[in-house]
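Sample entry (141 residues):
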Amino acid sequence: MTTDAEAIAVVRRNTEDVQGKGEWKLFDELFADDFVDHTPQPGTTADKPGVLFLYQALREGFPDFTPDIKWQIAKDGLVTTFKIYRGTQTGPILGVAPTGRAVEFETVDVMKVVDGKITDHWGVGNLLKMLVQLGAVTLDV
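Predicted structure, serialized as C-alpha cells:
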C-alpha cells in the first residue's frame, strides 16, 4: 500500500524528472503496465505508450520544457497537482511548426498511485493558451 506522501513523491518525480528532464527509464519504473489515461491528448492513445509518446513530443517541441509545481494534495492514493509548464518551441507540437516562441500554460491533473506506480490519469491542460501563444490560434475578444 502506498501512503499519500509516497504517492505525492511518485507524481512529483514523474513531473520533475520524467517530464522536466526526459528521464525515460524512470518513466517505465513509475508507470504501471496497465496504466489508463482517462483524458488522452489528441494524437495519443490512452495507455502507457501513449503517455510516453506525449511526454517525448513535448520535449521535442520544447527542449527546455520545465514544469513548475505550485501545489499538490493527495487522498487515498489520488494525487491532484496544479502546475505551470514553460518552454520555448523549437520543434513541432500538435501540428504547429517551430516558432521560437516561449509559452506558459497551466495544467491540473489527478494521478492514481497504487503500490508505488501510476495507474490512472485525469487532467485538463490549457492547450488553447499554448496555441494562442504560438500564434496558431487567434481569439477575437
